[in-house]
Amino acid sequence: MNLTFFDQFMSPQILGMPLIILALLMPSIIFPAPNNRWLTNRLTTLQVWTINLFTKQLMLPINKTGHKWAIILTSLMAMLLMTNLLGLLPYTFTPTTQLSMNMGLAIPMWLATVLTGLRNQLTTSLGHLLPEGTPTPLIPVLIIIETISLFIRPLALGVRLTANLTAGHLLIQLTSTAVLALLPTMTTLSLMTATILLLLTILELAVAMIQAYVFVLLLCLYLQENI
């Protein structure tokens, strides 16, 4: 029983070929391509308005030097948002429940922000490892602690996204299994459980959007520290 609950997190395959690449391409496939009706099409107008809104929110904590990162950060957020939401559809696969993929996104982006800081302002970036006014005996200990916390950042990014989405999917599957199991014997309790399932699904929709936003927002804050 426990194995079947976690089968949903296994990458589907056809003829031995993993379909995770197709799942990752789906967000870009469903976005309409530019054409001569770009401004008059309601869907594309809503898409442009949403992207502009997200970009403004993401760039708020960053000064003008970091605005060159707007395209990559907004694209990352759009991909995570659409992937998380598409994964809530029945009989679909959510690539962002895979820790390997999330770490593959978190580590290069975090490393890029760190290398940007080391290249542009080496002294300031290294100064973050030692708070001002630290007593002399505590300097070695604090440097070690701050260095560890710096290297834990990408791990926290990847694990946070994976854990939240995995927990939500498991709760939905457990609740839906309980609804089907109780339906023949205790109909009233099954309907009450179905109501809980509906509320849980709405909550998971919010979690999918919030986690995509938090992932990119934390990258923006890391970038602001290094520019």
TrEMBL record:
The keyword Transport applies. It is found in: Mitochondrion inner membrane. Gene3D superfamilies: ATP synthase, F0 complex, subunit A. GO terms for cellular component: mitochondrial inner membrane; proton-transporting ATP synthase complex. The chain crosses the membrane at residues 69-89, 138-158, 170-190, 196-223. It is a multi-pass membrane protein. SUPFAM superfamilies: F1F0 ATP synthase subunit A. InterPro entries: ATP_synth_F0_asu, ATP_synth_F0_asu_AS, ATP_synth_F0_asu_bact/mt, F0_ATP_A_sf. GO terms for molecular function: proton-transporting ATP synthase activity, rotational mechanism. It catalyses: H(+)(in) = H(+)(out). Pfam families: ATP-synt_A. Keywords: ATP synthesis, CF(0), Hydrogen ion transport, Ion transport, Membrane, Mitochondrion, Mitochondrion inner membrane, Transmembrane, Transmembrane helix, Transport. PANTHER family: ATP SYNTHASE SUBUNIT A. Component of the ATP synthase complex composed at least of ATP5F1A/subunit alpha, ATP5F1B/subunit beta, ATP5MC1/subunit c (homooctomer), MT-ATP6/subunit a, MT-ATP8/subunit 8, ATP5ME/subunit e, ATP5MF/subunit f, ATP5MG/subunit g, ATP5MK/subunit k, ATP5MJ/subunit j, ATP5F1C/subunit gamma, ATP5F1D/subunit delta, ATP5F1E/subunit epsilon, ATP5PF/subunit F6, ATP5PB/subunit b, ATP5PD/subunit d, ATP5PO/subunit OSCP. Belongs to the ATPase A chain family. This is ATP synthase subunit a.
